Amino acid sequence: MPRGRKRAFDRDAALDIAMHLFWRQGYTGTSIADLTAAMGINPPSLYATFGNKRALFEEALSRYEKERSRTLAEAMAEPTAREAVLRFLTGTAEAATLPDRPAGCLTVQGGLACGGEDGEIVQLLATSRARTRQALHDRLSRAVTDGDLPPATDCAALARCVVATAEGLNVEASAGATHPELAAAAEVGARVIPGPESAG
Fold first, then answer.
1. Secondary structure letter of residue 110 according to DSSP
2. Angle at 169 (CA atoms; ends 165, 172), nearest 5 degrees
3. pLDDT over 80 (residue 1)
4. Lowest-confidence range among 39-48, 89-98, 106-115, 184-193?
5. Burial level of 131, CB count in 10 A (0-12/13-18/19+)?
6. How far apart are CA 188 and CA 32, in angstroms?
7. Phi, psi of 110 (to 5 degrees)
8. I need a labelling partner for 10 at 20 to 30 A (CA). Which of 38, 107, 148, 195 fits?
9. pLDDT grade, residue 138 (50/70/90)?
10. Are the C-beta atoms of 136 and 75 separated by less than 8 Å?
11. Could you give the CA distance from residue 85 to residue 190 in angstroms, rounded to a whole number?
12. Maximum distance among all alpha carbons in the chain?
């Protein structure tokens, strides 16, 4: 590198930093000053690169969803509904307690203390969680069609129950629950899904 030349700005690394900051502190609790200090840039550079705080958050959320969508797809590919939900919940427990990541989940933590003009952020995060719920609903519906779940299964209610369980695991993680504790809870939570023997 020629003498005096500044190191190139790593946009992806900066976005990761912003994602973790929003994840840890929430959207409202994260200021532009927090972001620029953590990312090592000045406010004009942040605005030039990402637009504004809201646009940066949306991009960070999209990055987070992309990472989690792969794990969700793998879980939904399990051969039975119960196995799919178990893998989803145990994966949630693992992701919520990774040592190199903030505890919990961005879609839960990011909306803490949001209100007023930041209410749109709450809706943005709710829409993100709804996509997960829809993926679960689709998988449970397929299980009914395949004879893996009873014909009378309320897939919408069951999917909402599973998502609520996952959100609870994330809240518990943010309060200090350990991975073994959450993994045990995930095992119990998956039992809400009837086994194949009940489909007949």
1. T
2. 135
3. no
4. 106-115
5. middle
6. 41
7. -65, -25
8. 107
9. very high
10. no
11. 6
12. 74
Decide: 75 and 95 in contact? Cβ < 8 Å: no
Q: What is this structure's pTM? A: 0.85
Residue 199 has pLDDT above 70, yes or no: no
CA dihedral 181, 157, 121, 39 (to 10 degrees): 30
Amino acid identity, residue 23? W
Name the one residue in this structure whose structure tokens are 């489909």. 199
14, two tokens: 């900066």
Residue 104 neighbours by CB under 8 Å, 6+ apart: 23, 96, 170, 171, 173, 174
Quote the tokens at residue 13. 């690394």
Residue linked to tokens 């505890």 = 103
Q: Which two tokens stand for residue 101?
A: 């990541």
| CA gap 100, 95 in Å, rounded | 10
